[in-house]
């Protein structure tokens, strides 16, 4: 037995994106479309709702996997599931990150087709390289959030769940500082590093295990 393929896990993220998009679309249609400040506020609102829905569907996927894990343990010979919670957390977070990164990079690649060239008319020449780093950070963050989130749900550490949601909201909010890339990219990369260390510790990693790995000792 092995974890469900990527399309099934990514389906939960896609549903959350669809619901958030529908909510934002309806809000825009019912509002004053000539009011630029209002439309910007609705965009921020839509991004926040999208984050909350993503985390809600992450929790729903955890509950689904938990039920499946209990069923596998029931029918196994030794009474244990062949798939660990950490494995499920990793593949779930990675699938969320990959599909999120794919959707992010599609729009960027569409801009790269043209017309025109980035850097002309005052556009930042660092648009594409910065977007690449942001997309990479987002994929890693979703992977780390998945590990931390599942562990927090299993151990009922609600403050960890709150920190995951808050860091996700913070990451999404920082992207609104673009094209002031120094103010968005650097904090997001720092947050990625800190979250990665947290996820590493949550998964049972330690400095000792890193030394054993580097020295090729069992």
UniProtKB/TrEMBL annotation:
Keyword Transferase listed: no
Protein topology in the membrane: Multi-pass membrane protein
Any one annotated GO CC term: gamma-secretase complex
Keywords: Membrane, Notch signaling pathway, Signal, Transmembrane, Transmembrane helix
TM ranges: 40-57, 88-106, 126-150, 157-177, 183-201
Location(s) in or outside the cell: Membrane
Superkingdom assignment: Eukaryota
Annotated signal sequence range: 1-28
One GO BP: Notch signaling pathway
Known role: Potential subunit of the gamma-secretase complex, an endoprotease complex that catalyzes the intramembrane cleavage of integral proteins such as Notch receptors.
Protein name: Gamma-secretase subunit APH-1
Originating gene: Aph1a
